Amino acid sequence: MYHNIPIIMLIARLVFSLICQEVLEMPENKKLNFKELQTMQPKEVADCLTHLGREEMRADEAEFIWNSLIEFFKGIANIPEEVLAVLHYVTVAVQPEDYLNITMANIDVIRNFGLDYGLNDDHLEAIAWRVREDFGGKEPEDYTVYDLEALRQILCAFNRSEIERIRPKAFKEAAGIIGKLRNCNRDIMQGFAQLATQKNAFGSPSLWTNTTLHAVGAVAEYLPSDVVTKLKVRLGRNVFTDENN
């Protein structure tokens, strides 16, 4: 879907246009404001994307940058992978329907969309759908540690049955990242917890130590109740509280 640039923005560009080089030369303590951003031509926005998207921004600023990219490249489907891979905080402006025209076959593009931007379920589900369609024909059991590290938050939009198909060894190698995922639903986290207890992941929980729990991260909170009880008996009743502090 093409997003039109409001006429007031077009007028602003005609009166005064800020170029990328001027933005890059701004003092470190000077933040580009929305009015200044609105004066930038689409080409200048595209040239400056890496700089513009590096920090959190207001929704209207992200939307302006995304719309400028769509205008410059003449449609979402024409935006190159190397541009999608560096959207960073502009990602919040991409709408669920926009993903119909975005391909998720490139690991660098997936890595951008897998970072934590606080996207809601509709956005993450749209991204996950594209990954299932595009990512080199890979199934969950084919995912490597590098794939899991790129997918990150996108994994929260998978089904538990898909999560449990991930190879335990790959999960173990990516546990440091998976254990820090935010706002995954309980079902998904229980799927990861099931992986954690597999022989090729962290082995039998009867042999786990505080170090193991630290490696598993937040996933430990979703271990089966019988496992939690046994760990509390062996490592101390406050072991989970201690690991979360």
Core attributes:
245 residues; mainly alpha; 16 helices
Helix vs. strand class: mainly alpha
Sequence stretches where pLDDT stays below 50 over 5 or more residues: none
> How many H/I helices?
16
Alpha-carbon Rg, integer: 22 Å
β content, as a range?
under 5%
Tell me how many strands there are.
Answer: 0
Mean pLDDT reading: 91
Distance between the termini: 45 Å
Judging from the principal axes of the Cα atoms, what is the shape? elongated
The SSE string, one letter per element, is: HHHHHHHHHHHHHHHH
Task: Please summarize the sheet with the most strands.
Answer: none
Overall helicity: 40-55%
Describe this structure in words.
This protein is mostly helical. It has a domain of 95 residues. 52% of the residues lie in helices and 0% in strands. It is built from 16 helices and no strands. The longest helix is centred in the N-terminal third of the chain and has 15 residues.
List the helices and strands and how they pair.
Blueprint: H1 7-15, H2 20-24, H3 34-38, H4 42-47, H5 49-52, H6 59-73, H7 81-84, H8 107-114, H9 121-134, H10 145-151, H11 160-163, H12 168-178, H13 186-196, H14 210-216, H15 225-235, H16 239-244
Quickly describe the structure.
With 245 residues, the protein is mostly helical.
